[in-house]
């Protein structure tokens, strides 16, 4: 090998070794790290050299580093004389530049020939690199014992802090350690390591780099016992970054806050024991800052303990059934389009639409309920009926505009179940949408159309796409105010009476079969999203949003200071005169009215359909018409009248509801009985037979109705069990004992029978 070949043989990339992927929080505190592909803790090249460590290193290894051309003739001569005298290698004459070359060549044998090669390549390196870059390269690839390579990795493994935070004693320890890492490995030879460190501290004192007090105090500091485990409190975010080639092997500054991440992780762990007792093993929590979109905490799953229940799965990015968590978006969209106003009464009655029969969670019906109350109580039937009016195809498109990327199939596949968990979404996108919508409220008067974007956790990642919000500020503000009325868990009851309590708009969701429990909350500063369930999809009866996810969410919110609620976007809100009873825009017969805030299109919404002018006898006890009373004998009055089936359920829960008086007998012909129960007869005692397989069968109840096109709503003991059209037969399996069969038709006519099931 010729000298000329060696002179030009310096590779373009001096080191081609894999590096660890390391996550830091916003304040450069390490929160997670992954071994390099060669199983070494080797961080990517350091950006700057800590002053204390630089002084220690130079005084120990190469005091004339900034003055020599890559080799030090005096040091080499002294080493040669000393080694010849002792007939063995007792002293080295390598400079930091030469050691850098030696490390890059995988520590070839220490012969005179190899030393000559290192010397030549060192001069070549000095021509290509600045002194600072050579020093950075050296300290990034120096071995520190075991599988620890480089100053950054060593500082975190031995002292659990960054190199810039090291003391003089710690810097001196790490400066001498690479000299013989196998001999004085911390935890084995404390005395030798301490002596070596103290000699270096004495040299720093002699050179007046430190004073006598600093030297004395530094010598009192202990030697590290053994390498410390690196923090791993954002494991799932680390796994997420590893899937991006541009981030793998890098030191990544994230937007997370160590204190917030630690608190959220602790809260998830605290709830783990209770959830585990119900065989619920997985939880995830995401905390976002509304003003910036930054992720402050990212707990992708419950930390793994001894058992494995899918804790490696990052739930934050996993698509799960949405349950009721999308209802606020339908509410806001309907407000924006003027389809409803905040207090518009929505039907809450037994419903069957094209074979689809939604049911409320509590299996009851209110008859009619204000829209914002239906949202706050998460009633399913009003939501489905509202979606039917809004059109599920249109809502599907609206969700895509909001930022849900999981809705990839035709909207007809979801149908009306879209609003009750028929679709899937991720905690990442749902939390991000709520955070973006909240940020829209903070836009100025001149910028009525706010911009939305998904949250971000690192500035290294590609810029997030910004897109126009499909919801205006008025509808968003009305939506959040309705969500603020959602009833909180038992441990949060009476929150409004405490000055320290936060205003939080929130919504839960529970998927079909109790497989997914959601809770997402919005304050004026933060969004907290929580998912609880089993990663394998196993459902549990106890798994609900209110009982499983909400307690975690509120515990997280309690870690933040209280904040003012959103300022109403008056520039986008309009006043409309509404009927106090129906919530619709006041019609000509509405006497009790109030001003309500709405979106622009809300001012053009439908007028109240439930108030009408009725004609009464002078004593107001009967309805009359021209066939039985003259106009002078009539009293005309505005009356709140719900459709019969809505009325039948509504008046059960509203004692102040006044049904219309009956017509005077002479005004109308007596109506014949509209329906009759064919089977069972009154007070029948019925026996349910067994099928061939030994299981109990069902009995068929039959009803006759004069109107062949009517719909009958069936109830047993006031519990809705189904409905029939045209052919009124229903198979039932009541439990043993006495029961009441109740039937109501669409006109509100009712019939009932008592029967008893015997063994």
Task: Please outline the helices and strands.
Elements: H1 3-7, E1 21-24, E2 30-34, E3 41-42, H2 51-61, H3 73-86, H4 96-104, H5 112-128, H6 131-141, E4 148-149, H7 151-159, H8 168-176, H9 190-206, H10 212-220, H11 235-242, E5 251-253, H12 258-277, E6 282-289, E7 295-299, E8 320-321, H13 327-336, E9 345-348, E10 367-370, H14 371-376, H15 380-390, H16 392-402, H17 411-414, E11 424-425, H18 427-440, E12 451-452, E13 467-468, H19 473-483, E14 505-510, E15 516-522, E16 526-533, H20 545-557, E17 574-579, E18 593-598, E19 611-617, E20 634-640, H21 644-653, E21 675-679, E22 684-687, E23 699-705, E24 711-716, E25 719-725, E26 729-732, E27 737-745, E28 750-758
Parallel strand pairs: 1-5, 3-4, 22-28
Antiparallel strand pairs: 1-2, 6-7, 6-16, 8-11, 9-10, 12-13, 14-15, 15-16, 17-18, 19-20, 21-23, 23-26, 24-25, 24-27, 27-28
Helix pairs in contact: 2-8, 2-9, 4-5, 4-6, 8-9, 9-10, 12-20, 13-15, 13-19
Describe the structure.
This protein is of the alpha+beta class and about 750 residues long. The protein contains 21 helices and 28 strands. The strands form ten sheets. A five-stranded antiparallel β-sheet has the order 7-6-16-15-14, with helices on both faces. Strands 22-28-27-24-25 form a five-stranded mixed β-sheet, covered by helices on one side. It is elongated. The model has no long low-confidence stretch (mean pLDDT about 85).
Summed up, what is this model?
The protein folds into four domains: 3-21 and 35-220, Biosynthetic peptidoglycan transglycosylase-like (Penicillin binding protein transpeptidase fold); 318-488, Beta-lactamase (3-Layer(aba) Sandwich); 582-653, no CATH class; 675-758, Immunoglobulin-like, CATH 2.60.40. A hairpin with a 3-residue loop joins strand 15 (516-522) and strand 16 (526-533). The model has no long low-confidence stretch (mean pLDDT 87).
């Amino acid at each position: 090998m010729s000298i000329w070949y060696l002179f030009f043989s310096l590779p373009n990339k001096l080191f081609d070794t894999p590096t660890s992927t390391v996550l830091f929080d916003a304040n450069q505190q390490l929160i997670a790290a992954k071994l390099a592909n060669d199983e070494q803790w080797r961080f990517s090249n350091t950006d700057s050299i800590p002053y204390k460590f630089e002084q220690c290193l130079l005084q120990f290894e190469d005091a004339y580093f900034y003055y020599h051309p890559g080799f030090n003739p005096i040091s080499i001569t002294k080493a040669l004389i000393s080694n010849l005298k002792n007939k063995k290698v007792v002293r080295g004459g390598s400079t930091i530049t030469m050691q850098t070359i030696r490390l890059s060549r995988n520590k070839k044998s220490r012969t005179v020939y190899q030393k000559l090669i290192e010397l030549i390549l060192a001069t070549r390196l000095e021509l290509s690199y600045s002194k600072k870059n050579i020093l950075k390269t050296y300290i990034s690839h120096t071995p520190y014992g075991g599988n620890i390579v480089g100053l950054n990795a060593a500082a975190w493994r031995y002292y659990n802090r960054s190199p810039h935070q090291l003391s003089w004693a710690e810097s001196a320890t790490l400066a001498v350690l690479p000299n013989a890492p196998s001999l004085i490995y911390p935890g084995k030879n404390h005395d030798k390591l301490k002596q070596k460190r103290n000699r270096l501290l004495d040299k720093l004192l002699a050179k007046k780099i430190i004073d006598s007090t600093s030297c004395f105090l530094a010598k009192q500091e202990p030697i590290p016992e053994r390498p410390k485990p690196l923090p791993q409190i954002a494991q799932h975010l680390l796994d997420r970054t590893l899937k991006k080639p541009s981030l793998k092997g890098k030191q990544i500054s994230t937007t997370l806050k160590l204190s917030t991440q630690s608190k959220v992780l602790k809260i998830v762990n605290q709830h783990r024991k209770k959830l585990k007792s119900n065989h619920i093993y997985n939880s995830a929590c995401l905390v976002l800052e509304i003003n910036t979109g930054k992720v402050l905490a990212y707990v992708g799953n419950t930390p793994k303990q001894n058992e494995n229940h899918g804790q490696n799965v990052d739930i934050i990015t996993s698509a799960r059934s949405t349950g009721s968590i999308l209802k606020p978006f339908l509410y806001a969209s309907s407000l924006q389009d003027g389809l409803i106003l905040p207090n518009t009464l929505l039907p809450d009655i037994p419903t069957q639409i094209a074979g689809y029969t939604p049911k409320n969670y509590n299996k009851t019906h209110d008859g009619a309920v204000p829209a914002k109350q239906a949202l706050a109580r998460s009633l399913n039937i009003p939501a489905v009926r509202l979606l039917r009016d809004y059109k599920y195809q249109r809502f599907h498109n609206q969700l895509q505009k909001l930022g849900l990327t999981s809705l990839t199939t035709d909207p007809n596949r979801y149908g009306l179940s879209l609003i009750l968990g028929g679709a899937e979404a991720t905690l990442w996108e749902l939390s991000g949408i709520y955070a973006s919508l909240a940020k829209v409220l903070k836009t100025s008067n001149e910028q009525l159309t706010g911009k939305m974007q998904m949250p971000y956790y690192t500035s290294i990642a590609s810029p997030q796409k910004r897109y126009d919000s499909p919801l205006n500020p008025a509808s968003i503000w009305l939506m959040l105010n309705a969500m603020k009325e959602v009833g909180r868990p038992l441990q949060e009851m009476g929150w409004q009476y405490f000055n320290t309590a936060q205003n939080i708009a929130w919504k839960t969701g529970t998927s079909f079969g109790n497989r997914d429990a959601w809770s997402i909350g919005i304050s004026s500063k933060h969004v907290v999203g929580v998912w609880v369930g089993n990663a394998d999809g196993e459902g549990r009866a106890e798994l609900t949003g209110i009982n499983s996810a909400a307690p975690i969410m509120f515990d997280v919110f309690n870690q933040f200071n209280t904040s003012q609620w959103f300022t109403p976007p008056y520039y986008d809100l309009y006043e409309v005169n509404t009927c106090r009873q129906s919530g619709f825009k006041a019609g000509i017969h509405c006497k009790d009215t109030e001003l309500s805030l709405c979106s622009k299109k809300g001012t053009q919404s439908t007028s109240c359909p439930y108030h009408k002018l009725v004609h009464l006898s002078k004593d107001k006890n009967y309805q009359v018409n021209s066939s039985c009373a003259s106009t002078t004998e009539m009293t005309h009055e505005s009356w709140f009248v719900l459709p019969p089936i809505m009325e039948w359920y509504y008046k059960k829960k509203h004692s102040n509801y006044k049904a219309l008086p009956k017509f005077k007998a002479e005004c109308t012909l007596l109506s014949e009985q509209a329906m009759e129960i064919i089977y069972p007869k009154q007070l029948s005692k019925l026996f349910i037979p067994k099928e061939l397989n030994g299981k109990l069968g069902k009995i068929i109840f039959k009803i006759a109705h004069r109107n062949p096109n009517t719909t009958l709503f069936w109830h047993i003991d006031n519990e809705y069990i189904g409905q029939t059209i045209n052919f009124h037969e229903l198979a039932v399996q009541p439990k043993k004992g006495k029961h009441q069969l109740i039937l109501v038709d669409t006109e509100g006519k009712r019939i009932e029978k008592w029967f008893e099931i015997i063994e």
